[in-house]
Amino acid sequence: MEGALQRACACMYFCVFLTTVVTHGAIQFTAYEELRKVVVGYKSKESELSSSSADDLLNSIDYATLGASSKLAAIILTYPSQVIRSRLQQRPSKDGIPRYMDSWHVSKETARFEGFRGFYKGITANLLKNVPAASITFIVYENVLNMLKLARRKD
C-alpha cells in the first residue's frame, strides 16, 4: 500500500508540474478545436451536402456543447493544481508554522489523508460557475466570427 501511495503522489506531482507548464486555456482551446473537428466530420458524413462548410454544419447548440465539454476537460485536468496552490496559500497556524512546506508536501498530505478525492474538493461549485460561462462564450465567439466572415465575403 505504501508503494502505491508513493506512486500516486509522484503521478500527482507530475500532473501539477505539467499543468503549470501547459495552461488551462491551452487545454480548453485545444479540446474545443479537436472536438469541433470530430463533430464537423460526423455531421458532414451525415449530411448529403458535402460542399457545405463547417460554419453551415454547426449551430449554437453545437457551439454550446463543444464549449461546455472543452471547459469540463480543462477543469478536470487542471483542478488539482488549483487545490494545491490554494492550500499553499493558507495562513500559518497560531504558532506561525505553515501547514504545508511546498507543493510536494501538499500533494503527499492530501493523498494521505483525503485520498484522490481531496484533489477535487470544491470542483462542483467551480463547474457550475465556469461551464455555462464557457458555453455562452463559445456561442458568441463562433457567431461573431461567422458574421465577420459573411461581411468580408460581401465586400
UniProtKB/TrEMBL annotation:
The keyword Protein transport does not apply. GO terms for cellular component: membrane. It is a multi-pass membrane protein. It is found in: Membrane. Solcar repeats lie at residues 58-147. One of its GO terms (biological process) is transmembrane transport. Keywords: Membrane, Repeat, Transmembrane, Transmembrane helix, Transport. Belongs to the mitochondrial carrier (TC 2.A.29) family. This is Uncharacterized protein. It comes from Escallonia rubra. The lineage of its organism: Eukaryota, Viridiplantae, Streptophyta, Embryophyta, Tracheophyta.
